[in-house]
Design goal:
The protein is an alpha/beta fold and 260 residues long. It is 39% helix and 16% strand. The chain has a single domain, classed as Thiamin diphosphate (ThDP)-binding fold, Pyr/PP domains (Rossmann fold), CATH 3.40.50.970. The strands form two sheets. A seven-stranded mixed beta sheet has the order 2-1-3-4-8-7-9, with helices on both faces. The chain has a two-stranded antiparallel ribbon with strand order 5-6. The longest helix has 16 residues.
Amino acid sequence: MTARREPERIISAVENMPRSWRRETKPHKFCPGCGHPIILKALGEAIDELAIRDRVVYGCDIGCSLLSWDFFNVDSIQTHHGRTTPVIVGLKRARPEAVGIAYMGDGGGYAIGAQHLVNAATRNDRITIILCNNTVYAMTGGQMAPTTLPDQATETTPLGRDINLTGPPTMGPEMMAAIAGAGAYIARGTILNYPQLKKFIRRALLNQMEGRGLSFVEVLSSCPTNWGTNARETLDYVKNKMAKAFPVGEIKVPGEKEVH
């Protein structure tokens, strides 16, 4: 019964928003088949449902994620590559009442920005980080990224990633869960399960709003432009290759036993 009433509750919440909050749907600038728009839609709906638009400060990284800088009707800032996390941390310290959201790709988060993720986890900063994992540096041509799968062909690994030379893919949420203290919320979602993804993002925002600790959500996403895949191949890659390498689920939940 509750599940049936949920869509009605959401519709009612949106209809009762102040008119200044409402805007017509805005077309995105991402490539066809890209997963970013799905992640951003889940984030936008979570913000609307929690009625926190006037408290949100949204920061996005250089890379494909920068195309979202004017996507939401919220206070937004675009940062240097890999520096979104410390910018939002600084914002949160200056304005503790704000809901700080740092949005980035796997390159900005796990390569040049890895030190900032580690430090934020160590301090258990009260911000929400959402990271898009599409296994490549997408905007710059599809080079190998920290999350590139073993044997995956990219512009810089045409014969496939050799983990004996480059090491295995970065397991971001697992790393963050091992470092972050009590109160942190860590999860990995996928664009192929939208209700679950939005639930993870919503819980990440609530965890910050309740002042518990760091909130981090990695999302398995798609990049058919650089993968060179059609629609069927793209979905199959996310479902049967990425999800096997990167297990989907909640990894660290405040008050619950951690999953490893």
